[in-house]
Amino acid sequence: MSDEGASPRELLLEASRRNNTNLLSELLASHSSPAQISHLLNTATDGVGEYCLHVAATYDEVLDLLLDQEGLEVDPIDRLEADTPLHKAVRFVNGLSRTDWQAGSSLVELLLDAGADPRIRNKAKLKAMELVDPRNTALRSVLQKAEFAMMAGNDVVDDDDDGAGGATGSASDSE
Q1: Model-wide pTM > 0.70
Q2: Helix %, strand %, coil % for the chain, to 5?
Q3: CB-based burial of residue 60 (10 Å sphere; 0-12 exposed, 13-18 middle, 19+ buried)?
């Protein structure tokens, strides 16, 4: 088997590491079902226990393509630091120059839009927001709003479910 080339796991991690959307697209197309794709994406790790989203958390193109896949777990925990991809993206933004913070923040926003949970704490008991460079108030604000929306969103959904089937008071219900 070793003379047949790289395994799907190796190809996935390489595509993620190199921001290679062509390789990733070919790999995804070679699998016959969304279940096979999600299994690969959710189980493939590198030598230090990082999943493809951890590796891709610094590249917007491949990250965006990965996040479009059905069944992808957006909050896998890595083995070393118990970080999520959101933690990794924040650490990446911290390493950028201040002039690049805005562009780097788009990675964090991609993950949040896909459902990443900003409330998850890593091994050091830190949420992604607590890793943000204190001078980067814009990114801290994005994460605070996402955390609040996630907490408040559960209440809003519960309220909506309780009122289902009953009168809402709108004019269209009274006709």
Answers
A1: yes
A2: 60, 0, 40
A3: middle
